[in-house]
Amino acid sequence: MAIPVTKSFADCVDWSKTVSPYIPQLYDLPQQIFSSISNPQALKVLYVSTNPLISGFAFSCFLFPIFLIASEVNRNWSQVDRFWSILPTLYNVHYAIYAHAAGLPTKRLNTLAFFSIIWSARLTYNYWRKGGYNIGSEDYRWKIVKDHIGAPLFFVLDVVFISSLQSIVTGFYSAREEYRKTAKVPKGYHQEDLDRGFNATGLFAWSRHPNFAAEQAVWITVYAWGAYITRGYFNWSVVGPLSYMLLFQGSTWLTELISTQKYPEYAEYQKRVGRFLPKLPGGPPGDFSDKRKSE
User: Fold this and answer.
1) How confident is the model over 14-39, as a mean pLDDT?
2) How far is it, in rounded angstroms, from Cα 78 to Cα 134?
3) In 10 A of CB 51, how many CB atoms?
4) Can you give the pTM of this predicted structure?
5) How far, in Å, CA of 145 to CA of 273, rounded?
6) Higher pLDDT, 200 or 9
7) Cβ–Cβ under 8 Å, residues 287 and 200
């Protein structure tokens, strides 16, 4: 089946024209790949003749059992986390490569891919710096969730969310560890902040999760850019950023539930500072400077 010929930008966001007629391609794709695996030219023809959204989704389906088996065998449920900063860029680069191969305009896709690569490099470096790629490293929240809901339900969670749907603040904590080891307050920090156990200075005095807020803003901006270009301000592709935002809502809720139980002052911090966006002025300072001992 040929790829659709769109006559306007509005056609590009029309589900009935650009997606639904090509869903059957997904069913035949594994067999077609297998039969063409030894023929590079046939693979290129197959790649160009397959709707790029379908081939991208097929890649996600391929990764799902790999993540699931790896997490269950290793008893470590942070397999997707290690690819979290890489997969979005792989998909964006895939769309750019497809456009080049199919002879389509590539300026916007090249821009998006370049922008995405920068985002991915920054996030991957930060994850590496925090020890995310160390052998045995795992998101501490998964163990807590497993202890609460039990192994059988956690396996279901792994199947429907951790290994599947997921694939579709370091400076402060280093200073805190140094303070705990030496009992000396590192330069640029206050003893009260380090004793508190969580960061409430800088950006964290305005947003409890500025990194989460920025990451959501990145992909909302990507959607808004496409919506503006196509004049389809609300279209089916909004499911992407909305799903991303819902994922962060659940993740942040769990993180804050744990933080509230771990840090006595975190509930007060929640009253002072907004989850993602700053609160209206007039309240107590988010950095607890009103409670800091005079120097």
Assistant:
1) 91
2) 11
3) 20
4) 0.71
5) 26
6) 200
7) yes
